[in-house]
Structures are given as structure tokens and as C-alpha cells.
């Protein structure tokens, strides 16, 4: 029924995470019915990003400039480095605006199952960044998964001879978490890492 | 954190139905990490649609040509006309491939509450299409809502003096519907419209 152009747009949209074929069709219809207010601005924004898109050679972030906006920001603390698995993690952490330093994206996590070895990640680049000096503290912000934690352990070992503080994100109850609904792993972590009430 | 271009793209995507700010950010990241396989094709598809986008002067469908692909299709039955409220309804019905005729999009439904009167819809155009002759049957495919049914009644009255068959979609149990979970309105309709078992 739909013209080939509309079909192509539906299919391209349906490949986005969070959109299936059905919602993609709804989105296409929405775009077509409101050409000036939705389709045109989206097209322009997408063109801008497509033209300027680059991966930061320093930290591995994807941005519209290289070095990325975080690496270029003079207000950032050069002494602190937060290591994350993926760009999505960097974005998520940075939205909290609580980490004042810079980032390093590994590009994944060590995984025996998926055959991801240290040389498949940007670990050598990380070591070079730290060897270059000026970094006091490294925060290992891996996911709280088996593979994330394996990666964090591996990194901690690789970095142990540098004169830097190495920390990792706390594990425990998430904000709003109810004991009754949390898994045993989280409860065990929260109990093990319990802190004195002051 | 994100550059203004990325922020703009996030916001434009977040205005699509089915995507919120969070899923829009995930979609942006997805597009940026896979530029060649996702961003570029989506951009091209969107450009095509944006350039060719038009509303069919005959039936009110949105398509990449005017007359739209349905109105141009020589295999369609000119004698049957299906009247729908919105373009989305046309697309939904046409996906079923069960209606062989052509369509007419009203552009909404009569609503005392929202102040939508007959002259706000394409009812005059519909009457002109039917007056022009050649149409045998009109299917009123309004939503099974109060306003949809009011609109169907109004149309049936407006069209009663034409030598045409006027029908409307059957109401009853949806396929897979379990009595226990259906509302009383649907059950009442299904009972009232019960048919002899042959």
C-alpha cells in the first residue's frame, strides 16, 4: 500500500532501538502529517550529526567533534579519569553531572564467552594515558555484571603499579529499592559493604 | 555534556510517538555508533519522503505522490469506497489487504466536545465524490467510539438518498478475545449482532 519511499523510511526507523515495525509506521505517519514541525527539524538535526560525527581519539566518546566536548572542556578536572565499558555508560554517568573529570571508553568488557580479550579493548590506550602522567585517580565504572567486574579486576591489576588511587562504583541498594523486591546478589553486596551509621 | 547538534537530534527524535527522552538518547547513540548502516540510510529515506511528501487531493491519504498510490492503482475497485477518520486508519485497514476499493479520509470525527462540526471534515468532498457517480458501495469504517459512531450515523443520513449500499464495520468479539476479559459494551454488541449458526 505505502509507496517504496515510505516503506524504506518505516524500515529504517524500525531498526532503531525501542521502535518496532508498528511504532515505526506510527512515527512515519506522525512525521508525514506534520512535515514542517517534525520531519524538517529531525532531518536537519540528523544531517548535522551525520556530517560532524566523529569518535574522540582521546577517550573514545562519540560526538560531533574530535576531541569530544568533554575532552575539550577546560573546566573538567584532568586529574580524575572515569573508565567505562561503552559510550552509553559515559553518557549515563555524565548526565548525573557528579563526576568532574574525564572519561575513557573501553569499547566493551572482557568476556571469555564472546572471545573478547584485553587487546580487543582500549586498555593499552588507557595505560598510555595514565603513563603520560597528570592523572591522580581512576574510577572503574564497570557494569555490576560478572564480565564488568572481571574487567574491573583486570584493570585494577594492570594499573596497580601506577601512583594513583583506583576506586570502583559502590554496589548496594538502588535508590528507592525495596528489600523485598531485590535479588539476593544485591542484598549480599549491600550487606557486605554495610557502613557504620554516624 | 552532549554537543548542541546531538542534543537537537535527541529532542527531535523524542517528539516521535513511542519515543521518550531516554529512548531518544539511546536511538541517537545507536545512530552515531553505526553511522553507515543506520544513520546514513535513515537520513536518505527521510530526505526522499520529505521531498515527495504530499496529501492526496482525492482521498486525503498522505503519500509520496498525488494522487496517492491507492488512488492511482488501476487494480483497485472504483465502485467501493471506504470512509475512515484518519490516515492512520486507512493504513491500518489497507495492511489487512481485504478491502479492494478506494478510500476517503475525513480528517477526524464529529465531536461536540472538541467543537468539530461537519464542515471541519471532508464530508462535502465525500458527497461530491459520490455525486459524481460510479460508486456502488460505501463502507463506513469509523472507530467504535461514541464520536466515531456519531460520525457514522451522520454520514449514513447525509448519504441516504444516493443509490448506494452503505455498510459499517461489524462490532463484536475481537479475534482471540476472551469473554471474561471483554468490557460489557463489546459483549452487548456481540450479543445484539449475534448470527445464526449455519
TrEMBL record, chains A, B:
What species does this protein belong to? Answer: Sphingomonas lutea
The GO terms describing molecular function are: DNA binding; zinc ion binding
Family the UniProt entry places it in: Belongs to the RecR family.
Q: Where are the zinc fingers (C4-type)?
A: 56-71
Q: What does this protein do?
A: May play a role in DNA repair. It seems to be involved in an RecBC-independent recombinational process of DNA repair. It may act with RecF and RecO.
What is this protein's name? Answer: Recombination protein RecR
- Could you list this entry's UniProt keywords, alphabetically sorted: DNA damage, DNA recombination, DNA repair, Metal-binding, Zinc, Zinc-finger
Q: Which Pfam families match?
A: RecR_C (PF21175), RecR_HhH (PF21176), RecR_ZnF (PF02132), Toprim_4 (PF13662)
Q: Where is the Toprim domain?
A: 79-174
Give GO terms for biological process. DNA recombination; DNA repair
Gene encoding the protein: recR
Q: Which CDD domains match?
A: TOPRIM_recR
Which lineage? Bacteria, Pseudomonadati, Pseudomonadota, Alphaproteobacteria, Sphingomonadales
Question: Which PANTHER family does the record cross-reference, listed alphabetically?
Answer: RECOMBINATION PROTEIN RECR
Amino acid at each position: 500500500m505505502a509507496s517504496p519511499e515510505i516503506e524504506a523510511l518505516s524500515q529504517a526507523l524500525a531498526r532503531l532501538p525501542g521502535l518496532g515495525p508498528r511504532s515505526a509506521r506510527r512515527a512515519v505517519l506522525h512525521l508525514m502529517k506534520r512535515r514542517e514541525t517534525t520531519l524538517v527539524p529531525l532531518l536537519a538535526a540528523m544531517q548535522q550529526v551525520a556530517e560532524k560525527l566523529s569518535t574522540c581519539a582521546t577517550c573514545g566518546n562519540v560526538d560531533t567533534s574530535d576531541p569530544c566536548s568533554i575532552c575539550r572542556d577546560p573546566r573538567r578536572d584532568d586529574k580524575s579519569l572515569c573508565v567505562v565499558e561503552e559510550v552509553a555508560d559515559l553518557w549515563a554517568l555524565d548526565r548525573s553531572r557528579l563526576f568532574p573529570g574525564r572519561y575513557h571508553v573501553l569499547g566493551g568488557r572482557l568476556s571469555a564467552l564472546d572471545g573478547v580479550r584485553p587487546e580487543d579493548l582500549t586498555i593499552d590506550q588507557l595505560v598510555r594515558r595514565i603513563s603520560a602522567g597528570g592523572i591522580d585517580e581512576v574510577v572503574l565504572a564497570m557494569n555490576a555484571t560478572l564480565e564488568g567486574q572481571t574487567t574491573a579486576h583486570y584493570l585494577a591489576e594492570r594499573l596497580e603499579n601506577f601512583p594513583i588511587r583506583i576506586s570502583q562504583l559502590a554496589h548496594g541498594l538502588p535508590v528507592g529499592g525495596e528489600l523485598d523486591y531485590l535479588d539476593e546478589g544485591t542484598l549480599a553486596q549491600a550487606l557486605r559493604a554495610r557502613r557504620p551509621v554516624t
